[in-house]
Specification:
Helix content: 55-70%
Number of helices: 10
Shape: globular
Radius of gyration: 22 Å
Structural class: mainly alpha
Distance between the termini: 65 Å
Low-confidence stretches: none
Mean pLDDT: 88
Number of strands: 0
């Protein structure tokens, strides 16, 4: 290989490394991430509040989705943990649920955001694990949004934490690498979700002949 060829290959890889570094590790302002926290936090709070009326039906000791439903057929070992499995009896369902909703509310408004974010991610996954069989894509998207928001500075703006820092004269939200990484992870994951959702729909005849759209609009549940 000639020196010119080696130089061209080297420059090619340097450009890609530079692009990768710029996309993932350039400090970014946290305002967009904080706005996502506010909006996603509201959706997370609402979707889990919606479980309240049927909490015992879906999460109680005698729920319509028994714990054995999550177990491996061969070993009998459950593949999905949940804090509901640790409750001593169903009397704890409502008190613990109220605590969880409070945590999610605090995360939404950005109070003690890092701690509340990690706890929210934990409980969103815990509810999803217990309600296997009653999940929708929204529940799964809630899971990864909560996790990515928890690892980034999602409380740097539009939050109680930001207001409290301003009162103490600690300055505003500064650009950070973690704000960029969290935002890029959300972007990439959403692209993967929509790619495979699209591929899955293309494999069904109803999406080619148009009846899938009609079925969605005609369904009383979706209405």
């Amino acid at each position: 290989m000639s020196n010119d060829s080696n130089s061209a290959v080297s420059n090619y890889f340097r450009q890609w490394i530079s692009l990768f570094d710029r996309v993932w590790f350039t400090p970014a302002a946290p305002q967009v991430l904080s706005l996502i926290r506010l909006l996603a936090g509201a959706v997370i709070l609402y979707t889990h509040f919606a479980w309240t009326r049927e909490l015992k039906t879906f999460f109680g000791s005698e729920s319509i989705i028994p714990s054995s439903y999550r177990a491996d057929l061969n070993t009998g070992v459950s593949f999905a943990w949940s804090h509901f499995d640790w409750l001593p009896n169903d009397h704890w369902l409502i008190p613990v649920h109220i605590v969880v909703l409070t945590i999610m509310f605090l995360f939404m408004i950005g109070a003690w955001t890092r701690i509340m974010g990690l706890l929210t991610a934990f409980f969103v996954l815990s509810y999803a694990n217990r309600a296997v069989g009653a999940l929708f894509g929204l529940d799964q998207i809630n899971c990864f949004l909560a996790f990515y928001l928890a690892i980034g500075p999602a409380g740097a703006a539009y939050s109680v934490d930001a207001w409290w820092r301003a009162r103490k004269g600690r300055g505003g939200a500064l650009p950070s690498v973690m704000a960029n990484i969290s935002f890029r992870l959300i972007q990439m994951h959403m692209c993967v979700v929509y790619f495979f959702a699209g591929v899955g729909k293309l494999q069904g005849d109803t999406w080619w002949n148009g009846t899938a759209i009609w079925l969605a609009f005609a369904s009383n549940e979706y209405q």
